[in-house]
Amino acid sequence: MTGFLRRPMLLMEQANLRTGLRWKLSAAIALVAGLVAIVLSLVVHNAARVSMLDNARELANDRVQIAQRNYELNRRPNFPNVKVDDPDLPQALREKVEDGRMGSDVTDHGGLSDIWAAVPVKNGHVLSYHSHLPDRSVGMMKDLDSALIIGSVSVVLGGSALGVLIGGQLSRRLRKAAAAANQVAKGETDVRVREAIGGVVRDETDDLARAVDAMADALRQRLEAERRVTADIAHELRTPVTGLLTAAELLPPGRPTELVLDRAKAMRTLVEDVLEVARLDGASERAELQDILLGEFVARRVAAKDPDIAVRVVHESEVTTDPRRLERVLFNLLTNAARHGRPPIEVTVEGRVIRIRDHGPGFPEELLAEGPSRFRTGSMDRAGQGHGLGLTIAAGQARVLGARLTFRNIRPAGSPPDLPAEGAVAVLWLPEHAPTATGSYPMMPSGTA
């Protein structure tokens, strides 16, 4: 069940769109727009140039034909740029004319386009016309290229702006969906992702929100069913366990009686813990807030539980909290340190922060990575005993108080992670202000610092 809950929550955390979806979409649209603009510009440029050159060749053919008629009448070209047997005439065009055909050609020379037209005349001579592309046409081509460049840049900028607009809207919707999903993961069962993203757009984001809401409802129903079954079983066990404990106390003194009483008390403690977890899961717990001096409170409670545990108050602070629940968290952490760690156990109060350290092998890696989990005792070196509910209850009560409970291991600076820890530290961070939401909610897996 833990893995089933954790996987979809991780997916939603990965959907927190701080990876630049807006800019990725903008860059993609700008790239496509730029490629399209370049291709269209090249097509338009080449089409315009081919059209101008075709017109220039037709004009050259007309002029060389006029010059041909004049030459046949006057034996002289009598036309500007017309020569007989011009040595600069391109060889391919010369061969074509020598075969008795009229032709024209375009050559590039020094960045300029040379227009040639030639016809055969009497006595085997070749009459040719040579000119350049008109300055007006060259100017038009430059103006066209400038217009194409400006248009391409405008298309790219417009595409980028459109991508930012579209990507920003999508990114905002997905960020809202991710934030709402994180609220659901924290146990706020009344949050709806589809309502959080808002708007009337019906797209894939809306489909995602519907799917997440349906998943959250299914998980909520499954958790509620499991909670009810657990609570019912624990409640039904309460009466026979109490009767068993009472009957064991009536047995004659001796070692067998001590063993029976010890196991009966352990079973009663387990039943009470299971019921407490069920109440925390049922979101029915409410904190009763009072103003207390935290250092004095912790010192008195720790002394009552174990006078051998040293309490150091670095800085006294007045806090608004539920003393009964705070005591429950404190005792569970001390019990865990005494059972799974090694002495000395040290308690430090600094402002609103309570630290409980032991000198044992440290917390299991699974607990550090995923937080407390019910009925998981961890590795044999630290948690070979118990049923795994102590830290789970502590974490649940801390949430009712609006506090944060973190776990870490103590290691020498620079030591490799495979070396054994030199102790475990549980840190309870009480809120700076009195909590406004003082109710419990289902305890889903969450990482710890």
From TrEMBL:
Record membrane topology: Multi-pass membrane protein
Pfam families hit by this protein: HAMP, HATPase_c, HisKA
UniProt subcellular location: Cell membrane
Annotated ranges, domain HAMP: 168-224
EC code(s) of this entry: 2.7.13.3
Histidine kinase domain mapped to chain residues: 232-434
Chemical reaction(s) catalysed: ATP + protein L-histidine = ADP + protein N-phospho-L-histidine
TM annotation in the entry: 21-44, 147-166
SUPFAM superfamilies per UniProt: ATPase domain of HSP90 chaperone/DNA topoisomerase II/histidine kinase, Homodimeric domain of signal transducing histidine kinase
Entry superkingdom: Bacteria
Keyword Transmembrane on entry: yes
Top-tier EC class: transferase
Keywords on record: ATP-binding, Cell membrane, Kinase, Membrane, Nucleotide-binding, Phosphoprotein, Transferase, Transmembrane, Transmembrane helix, Two-component regulatory system
Keyword 4Fe-4S: no
GO molecular function, one term: kinase activity
InterPro entries to which the protein is assigned, alphabetical: 2C_sensor_his_kinase, Cell_env_sensor_kinase, HAMP_dom, HATPase_C_sf, HATPase_dom, His_kinase_dom, HisK_dim/P_dom, HisK_dim/P_sf
PANTHER family membership: SENSOR PROTEIN CREC
Protein name: histidine kinase
